[in-house]
Fold these 3 entries.
Entry 1:
Amino acid sequence: MGTLAVGDFKVRKAPYIPLLPENVSHVLPCHTYRGLQKNESHEAYVARLAQNLEDEFQRVGPETVCAFMVEPIVGTAAPAPATPGKPKAPHQTSKSSAKPSDPATRPSAPSSSTKKSSKPSAALEVQRIIKEDGLVSNVARMGDLLSSLLRERFAAHPYVGDIRGRGLFWCIEFVADRAAKAPFPAALNLAKRMANRGLERGYDISLFAANGSVDGWLGDHFLLCPPYIVGESDVEEIVKRVVKVVESVFEDVKREGLVKEMVDGLFERGKGRGVAEWYWAERWVDKWGWAG
């Protein structure tokens, strides 16, 4: 319950809201693609986030705060590396506002847990191999290659809004409108379609599908997380298979039957889903030429 309260992955969190502790508050996430305002510099963005954190300390009372939690690279909900300068900003703010001995717990950002090995010797052996085989250096080299190939193949894709990541942890976020950064309707379940297609014979790639990068509910993206030992030919094959999956799913989406099914579902549930999905249903009717 404590971990759910600290995080903000709404799909997981929503069923347990009545049970969650109330001594937790949240601040703006560091998500450059979604959060950086027009004509705002990265420095100004970091300063705005730091001020948001400071304001939250003052709102709840600095004397009630014992911890601030943040992920340097956000995981499932919106895989995004921190904006330059962001890791230092919370430290500088918290030093001036909160005391280590304050009793109440008010974490302010998503946090992930790690599972510790029950065999210390196994953990040490892993670290030895990482060091002796130069795997951290390999992650940097192969990460640069993966970044380059993903951008080469998807930067101009009409429905790819953002390609982001670091090392061997990368994400592609899909949007229905690149200029507006508008997400696809949730009813389309785009990311899940891609993950399922990747597991089919002939595609053969595991994609970690996720959603919620817009508001916790809307937004489709998937993660690529190759192992530390991956080589150049592996990275090239990974990107080749990802391209095949994405092209295949969008071909499916463009077929009249799937669009009609999606629009029917949206209009049937429209009153309970809000204006946004009604709007996108109409846009998709327009875009793919279905009417009836």
Note: The first strand starts at residue 160 and ends at 166.
Entry 2:
Amino acid sequence: MPYPEPNQTRTRPLEIMCLGLSRSGTESLNKALELLGCEKVYHGFHVAEARGHAIVWGRLGFAKEAQHESPDFSLFTARSFDRMIGDCDAVTDIPCATFGPVMLQAYPDAKFILNRRTDEEAWVRSIRQTLLPMQTSWALLAHVFLRRRDVLASKMFRCLLRTCLSAHGWTPDDAGSKFAKQI
């Protein structure tokens, strides 16, 4: 039985968008924003925890990836994102970072932080040690399947990560892009 798709509406303004890739301080930023008074911060962890979110984010990611170099901003409205983040006043990590330019258009009054790691090779090592094992672990995939999660979540995550890397200007010659092709 499929999960119901999220259908939240905006209950508070989206004030802050941290549009950096995973493993670039996103969890620390999440905790800092909470300490500074943000009531709810959406982080990549929420995709796995919230029923139906992976499906909607995945569809948005596939649509963005299909448009590649010239996204149709009219397809990515605040309402598109509010379905998942409507009760949040800040966002960090992917999948939100995947949609940086279109989210900036959708939420023009929000402030944004572009957090990144300056040592690209250290970032790639960090991804390989943390996120890659989550995507290639049979035990984890079995756990996800047995918990009745949508089996497309892994493919959607990969699509979102590839899209996010390209949105941040990574080229095929970059170590990060070479890594992204592996997943």
Note: The two ends are 28 Å apart (CA to CA).
Entry 3:
Amino acid sequence: MGLIAGIFFTFWRILQILTLIPTLGMLAYFVHGFVSTNTLTPDSILVLFITSVLAAVWCIITLFAYHRTRHSAFFVSLIDLAFIGTFIGAVYALRGIAKADCSNFSSGGIYLNLGPFGYYARDSGTQWSLNINKTCAMLKACFAFGIMNCIMFAITSFQEMREITSSEIQGLYAGIVTAAVLAIVIRIHDHNMEEEEAVAGPMYNDV
């Protein structure tokens, strides 16, 4: 890597760390709440939490071991690409919070699935249900940080790809990128079809 590329890489790594640490901190609060009440943590929270922890560790390692990672551009680029996919999946799992009204968080599928933080705890008076609107705001912030990291890992992944000089490796990388994108698109399409069938089923039964 050249000097400019190194500065560029360091800048994005620091920015990733600055967004990942608050994300995993807020999600750790939710995980602790579910564990302390002996409740299963929803996938929408758990997936993004695990992804954020692993991504933060990876960013710190590659930042402080920069003098080594610059000689392994293909490997670093490949791992960053994997994080793009995991963050897309994590954000998709938490998509229900995107349209939630945090000034009056009292409805919606995600509200019903939040256990001690949502519908089932609103009358319990526990410490986890004292401020439902704060819960919504924290989840929405995590959702936004997840989207930001999708973009930032894409930037660092493609930056590392530019450092790969072998045309064969570049061709392999392009194939991996294409396959990953197609797999994500197909999975989202299949999930949407399943949701449409689930909604259409009761309608046909009523007819």
Note: The CA atoms of residues 84 and 150 lie 5 Å apart.
